[in-house]
User: Fold this.
Amino acid sequence: MTANIDVARLADLLREAARAEIMPRFRNLSDADIREKTSATDLVTEADEAAERFIARECRSILPDALFVGEESVAAEPALLDRFDEADLAVVVDPVDGTANFAAGVPLFAVMMAVVSRGETVAGLIYDPLGDDCMLAEKGAGALRRSGDGEAAVLRTASAAPLKEAVGCVSYSNFPASEKTALLSRLDKLNIAANYRCAGHEYRLVASGGAHFAVYSKLMPWDHLPGTLIVSEAGGHIMKADGSPYTSRDRKGTLIAACDEAAWRACRDGLFPDAA
Assistant:
């Protein structure tokens, strides 16, 4: 267990933020409550900003020495990412992962948090406001699904399957155009290629045995640090497609979070044969 980090309290905090600031706004947003950031599919809502303020305020009492790095905080102050890379202790938060789904009234979004100590992710949490449960992990202590009433169950990833039988979550929209064309041409090698537009739920699926791998190219820390730790602690294998480790400082490259090493290799060789 990680000293001085009350992961159960952090899970409660994500639940409280969702109940106070996110769920009352679900399917109850006005046009003025939704704004574009960089594109029509990169959105921020009043729920994102209010939930992030709520979590930041409460984190100050739980982890007073930690740098708080939220997705919306970085949007307002990009230099926070540089401070994050040098921080001894940081809390990284995506207040509403899957904002485009949330804004459209689609019931597929999550609240995510990671605690990072000197560049190493030591705790990860993904809370599902609609299912009212939280997947959480501490470095070296395994991964759990914790229900709203506090009951917990151990998470385990699936075993690898041949690529033609595999279920993969492939977030292809953020790949450069030339790479996207090649990637799309190879997706017929899979049994199912899914894209939930919500990394939180895709990581939850891999961690709980419902998918064999998830693939990403836009490596912002709030999108991937919580899920990669949870999948790893559930028995999975996390590496970039070129074979290098994924770290909290990575912003570019292709990330593969797989149920085990054999599934990672099958995904890499089948979808990214030029990366090896």
Observations:
- The chain has a mean pLDDT of 96.
